[in-house]
Amino acid sequence: MNAKNALHLIQACIRNLLIQEPFWGSMASMLHKKLDENITALSLDISDDFRWTLSINPHFWQTTKRSETQQQGLIKHQLLHLLFRHPQSMSHFADALYFNMAADLVVNQFLLPAQFHEQDFSLQKLPPKYRNLAYRDVGFYYDLLLKIATENAALMQELCTKFSTEQKEFLIWASWENIFRQASSDSLLQNQTEKLWQTCYTKNTSPELERLVSLLPNAPSKNVTTISWKKILRNFVKNERANVMKYSLRRPSKRYGTVPGLSHKRNLVLWIVVDTSASISDAMLQVFWHEIRQISLQKDTQIWLVSSDYRVHQVQKFRARQSPQIFVGKGSTDFSPALQYIQTKNTPTVIYFTDGKAAAPLIKINYPLLWCIVADAAHTQAFDDFPGKVIFLQEKKTLTQK
Asked: What local confidence, expressed as pLDDT, does residue 105 receive?
């Protein structure tokens, strides 16, 4: 079996990992691969252009007695070292062998039971009183190994001898110290790691990944695209328009040449609800009014304005460039009355301006609905239970909860 077949074997293994654990399969598929007979089995490597690479021993991959699930564990093992920045951290510890053993204790806890091999170093190989110290950082396990060495030198010597024999590829990390000291090359590697993380983590989530995030040094958050809330509001009004056909003397029929012809217009009947409860300040009402006037300037838009707190107080047709009016309300807040009233209308589209300081409406909404929440409420409660879309009125970005 030649080297090309070895690459096919590892690619097949990664494809199956992609099905079973999409996050790790996606990350493994994005890394470059190369064959290297000088390593034991599988190892991280750095290419000449400073990119993370998976180095593969073709002989090992063709002759290994490990199951496919255990082979996936080998791949996942290396990716975990990459995310935890263990290669970059090794120079901060005096004993490289103890550091490598501590790093393995960190990453092997994230392997599935079926992905373990009897040779893998784990907490179960430590004295029984230390086996419950799970999910700690590499520094904690490094100090723990030093403590075990003072308590039971013979046991520690046995563990070190076995580990150094089976895990020779970790010695490669020591040769990268000069690379990590160069700001430019270290930055390239770190940017690649963050890009891998953002690409894979944004598309996949699980309790295991959330636990991983809590332990990662400087863990990047999910890459949520920030979009201007004003753009979302304008697009909502634009996209909810309905096509209307009408007769027109200005456009004769192109097919028959007769008059009158047909023209297409995109009309919108928009219901705007303004929360007039006691928690809404005059400054908030000015923000609401400004946005309502901007919406009214759009062509072929008919707006009905509803003032509501715990009940509907006013319903009136809004005219473009209308001067500010006095809103009636100042009671408690209940979103349901206004939404129930609008639901009786024909194919409504609704924008609700509010501070969000009330429970989510319990009624079922069967029409387009956009909640515009003032910015100071964005950090006081979650809006996952609100029907429709949610945006926060703030200066530069929006956080869409649904």
From this structure: 92
Q: Which run of H or E residues covers position 183?
A: helix 183-203
pLDDT digits (tens, 9 = 90+) for 279-306: 888 888 888 888 888 888 877 788 888 9
Upper half-sphere CA count for residue 219 (Cβ side, 13 Å):
13
Determine whether domain 229-393 maps to CATH 1.10.10.
Answer: no
Contact between residue 40 and residue 60 where contact means Cβ atoms under 8 Å apart: yes
Band the pLDDT of 145: cuts 50, 70, 90: very high
Most confident of 77-91, 196-210, 321-335: 77-91
d(CA 214, CA 210): 7
Q: Where in the chain is the domain with CATH 3.40.50?
A: 229-393
Mode of pairing for the β-strands spanning 312-318 and 301-308: antiparallel
Q: Is there a contact between 79 and 28 (Cβ–Cβ < 8 Å)?
A: yes
**What's the full length of the chain, in residues?**
402
Structure tokens at 168: 């020779």
Cβ–Cβ < 8 Å for 231, 220: no
Closest CA to 380 of 279, 282, 233, 274: 279
Cα–Cα dist 97/146, whole Å = 11
